[in-house]
Amino acid sequence: MTAEQVKPSAPDGTLSGLSRRRRRQLSLGGQYGLFAAVIVLIALLADWGTLRHNFANWDVAEGLFPDVITVGLRNTALYTAVGFGLGLGGGLVVALMRLSSVPPYRWFATTYIEIFRGLPLLLIFIFVGVGVPLAFPGTTIPGGAAGQAGLALGLVATAYLAETIRAGIEAVPKGQMEAARSLGMPHSRAMWSIVIPQAFRIIIPPLTNQLVLLCKDSSLVLFLGITLEQRDLTKFGRDLAGEKGNTTPIIVAGICYLLITIPLSLLARRLEARRKEAR
């Protein structure tokens, strides 16, 4: 028997005489046991009857349909789609300005990105809802609440998506542009036909993540003074919770948000995995 086969035992009865793998197994077992004990303790101490009545009252939840879908969910999806569309178009323009060889374009793009990424989205909603009518009397934003919400979301999304698109363009190998130019293709045509399509394939996952964030940020539309038919999920749930004296409508609104965000998150992870497999 060699010296390596003899494992010294700890005289004080501690785990120092055990192998690293065994110590790790015991540590994980202790963590799992502690976690299970906390869950059991919470389950025993919680007042499930009160929780069910206030957060999962089926009678209250049943009365929310179909308005929670036809009003709240529909408007949330609409505000998100308009904001993302404006942000995607604006982000592409600002990204190209950021990469431009013309200094004023770069200065404007950099300033825009820094300002709108640094300001809270709530201030942007207040500016769109209050500042624009005061600055331009008699001017109304097309589309009503959808136009106002889309503009506020689009202004911020433009700043974030501009950086995402710029990173995607810079990730395209420079040889692609050089090959296109060597064939006599103008720079602008090579950018639109060769570089930008490849860049968008690269940045599809972060674009999907930004769409998820915009969906949740659309809840700030309540600061625009919307009507009952223009309510998003958050406003809808909050109004009904106050009306019925029960928080179940807020839970239902949260579940509706998950119906949008979870599939988008799964799609983003799937696209990211496919992109890694293609490398």
Q: How are the elements arranged and paired?
A:
Blueprint: H1 20-45, H2 48-55, H3 58-62, H4 67-98, H5 103-118, H6 121-135, H7 144-171, H8 174-182, H9 187-202, H10 204-217, H11 233-244, H12 248-278
Main location: membrane
Protein name: Amino acid ABC transporter permease
Domain ABC transmembrane type-1: 73-268
Could you characterize what this model shows?
Belongs to the binding-protein-dependent transport system permease family. HisMQ subfamily. InterPro entries: AA_ABC_transptr_permease_3TM, ArtM/GltK/GlnP/TcyL/YhdX-like, MetI-like, MetI-like_sf. This protein is mostly helical. The chain has one domain: MetI-like fold, CATH 1.10.3720. It is flat and about 75 Å long. The two termini are 50 Å apart.
